[in-house]
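S.,

As promised, the iron/sulfur cluster run. Input:
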Amino acid sequence: MEKFKSYTLGQLDKIPQLSGLSEEQIEEIKIVSSIYPFKTNNYVLEKLIDWNNIPDDPIFRLNFPHKEMLLTEDFEQLKQIRATGTDEEIKEVIYNIRMRLNPHPAGQVDLNSAYINDDKLEGIQHKYRDILLFFPSQSQTCHAYCTFCFRWPQFINDLDFKIQSKEIGPLLEYLHENPQISEVLFTGGDPMIMNSRVLDSYIEPLLKVDSIKTIRIGTKALSYWPYKFTTDEDAEGMLNVLAKVTKAGKHLGFMAHFNHPVELEPPVVKEAIDNLIKIGATIRTQSPLLRFINNSPETWTKMWEKQVQLNCIPYYMFLPRDTGAQHYFAETLERAHEIYTEAIRNCTGLASTAKGPVMSMTHGKVEILGVKDDLYTLRYVKHRDDSKTFKVFTAQSISPKPMWIGDLQEIKSEIMNY
Ligand SMILES: *Cc1c(COP(=O)(O)O)cnc(C)c1O
Ligand code: SF4
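Predicted complex:
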């Protein structure tokens, strides 16, 4: 049995594999980790990162913060104040840098809130008609943290940004009042951090709600800790709780987060996937397109083909949201569209099911359909006003290097008649 061992910033010096790095490299990790959350674990360190390829190894980039994730002036200011400032001064600099990194993009907090009468429900986001996001308080962490994570503020205690729920009662009441909701998507952090007992306390009551047809679980456990579904002490218990969903005649959808084909290679990943499929789960995959990690068409073709071989369904290629280190990880919209198209072109039909490149923004999820010079054709693959879902529209770039929907200006909305 593999025993889970995680390392956060305070334990950086205890990570054996880092002994090959220079002092300067370690110091950089520490500086950037004072802004963004950092966590790794023994599986990522031993099975995923290629330590002969540091710092360019994609999984190292995925898990270890690096200098360029901060703007040069912010990095330098932080470095300076850490060397010479008081605790108070350091804290203030950190706070100000974080605030400039747009910690809450796309109006998530206000626009997506759910209410019963006038009471706002904690830990629930209701953006689209038929599906609700649920953030159990016990899943507000992950087995390791991704450097590009758009939910990074949720993992920082000093920032009062947590979206979480400790109880299922209000959720059930809300579902009762909104029978049009047919899906609940567990998210976090990573819901697969929870143990089987806690998960059961959420799943069991949900299965009694007739209008709920699908339970989805958004998780990176298959990449960061696949033992969750194989040899962990609680693995069997976990599979038994999850199996209740399919036994109740509902759909169990795993939204598995994989960023690079390397994450699919260890044999334990296949075992974990097989165990989930045995209990009737369907595994769909998603990832953002990220510079330094997966920004070549070949990487995506390989990843999607391998996923099909493992019985997973490619689902979304996202673009990094306008928060945190987007400036570092994002490709331009044009290059993103090119990478997506080339990747799909080289795939077999069954591996070409992913929608993309997709931006999740205030009104919905927008897919880039085509680019010619500064003109873009786009489509809402999902809109908060469902009469607009799948509407096609055109836009023009208003930036020399458009990387997000805000860099485009709509020209014609709804170029379809229906
Ligand atoms: C992406 C997303 C969903 C799920 O969307 P699908 O296209 O059905 O996978 C649900 N709620 C929110 C807020 C989302 O961003
Ligand atoms: S697993 Fe998901 S929620 Fe957790 S750090 Fe990575 S992107 Fe963020």
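The chain has two domains: 6-100, 113-361. The pocket of pyridoxal-5'-phosphate (ligand 1) is lined by residues 125, 127-128, 131, 133, 185, 360, 365, 382 (CB under 6 Å).

- D.
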